[in-house]
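User: Teach me something about this protein's shape.
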Amino acid sequence: VYGLPELFASQIPGQSLIANPGCYTSASILGLAPFLAGGWIRPQGIIIDAKSGVSGAGRTPKLNTLYSECNESMSAYSVGNKHRHLPEIEQVLTTATGQPVEAIFTPHLAPMDRGIIATIYAPLAKPATDAELLAAARTFYAGKPFVRVVDHLPTTKDSAHTNFCDITVRTARGQAIILSCLDNLIKGAAGVAVQNFNLICGFPETTALL
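Assistant: First, the predicted structure itself:
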């Protein structure tokens, strides 16, 4: 079972094996899911531009993650849909929404310790205002304690050291512009694992996380 509780919570209790989602994957899927499910955006032509803190590259020493190399510099990597998280993003969204989702995904390394901000561009499937899309996202995530749909433009500091994912959306020139922020080490890794553990064991989903 894919361990993203905001979409698959009903399938998780009692399972003995859960696939925890990746960090970029969580930010991208949580940002896109309400608008795909509601038919607000088209499933093709999606562009995901995501930036991650250096901890997203892991603990293995690498030249490009040394402080003197990455400080005061930003860089793209796995350009050309070569990042391993893209097939995961497309597959999960296709499964969850019943639509063949296709995206272009470009990750970037940002000079910060932790955090992910994904700026996602998706063509609107029908006319929509900012208020309508925000309302749709709030309805979709009603009762989901770790997704905050916000009116302001979220920053990585807002969700740092928490299990929250902050989402907002704007519209311009026939596109939905979705912002999705989370802590790659918590909501993007250890925190969602605890969330899944809680659901498997029948504990409140927020145990040890709030």
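Now, about its shape. The beta strands are 46-52, 75-76, 103-109, 116-123, 147-149, 165-172, 175-182. The first strand starts at residue 46 and ends at 52. If you'd like, I can walk through any region in more detail.
User: That's plenty for now, thanks!
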